[in-house]
Fold this protein.
Amino acid sequence: MLAAQADGYVTAEMDTIGMVHGDTHREFTGRTTLLDDDLVPYSEAEQRQRAAWQTCPEFLDWLGAEPAELARLVEETPGLAALDDPWTVPGLALIEQAAFTAFPQVTKSATSEQMALLDRMARGIGHIFLQAFGEGKWVWVQTLYENPPGPALEIPKSPEWINPGSLLRGALRQRNGGVLADLLRRNIEAHREWLASDFNQS
């Protein structure tokens, strides 16, 4: 979760996504460039650890809290409850604006209440991404080697994880409306390009 990030929500790079899927992995900033020759096979030990994380109590508790946390996010985000479907691009914009309001300045520390709010917002962002992709699921992974494992999105056949917490922290640093919607569009486009690529067919 966001609280697991080593330096809080302000130090992660914009659009940082751990590149992991199947039996390969890599990391870089951004998702629109596919560096095929940088894919590195997982070791057997890494694969066992990754599988164990999916059934760890922390992740199962986090998953179990999703209905209540999403409902609370709808209640506390201005305008979200008024939408016919809050889990759409308009809802993404409202969550982004609420984040700007709740965190008018970027700092190097955050209270437990602020971290809980950031986690709910990231959860909502991830839920919207999953609805837009039409497939995928939450997984518990280590998106950066120096950080503990936390929630990220895994999209079928994609070599990459999407870390909504990192996307939210990047939007807070940029403070330009529409950042999250643009990242959603770019992620979908990059995924389509990957599916059509020769590398994916091999």
Strands lie at 16-21, 24-29, 40-41, 137-141, 150-154, 161-162.
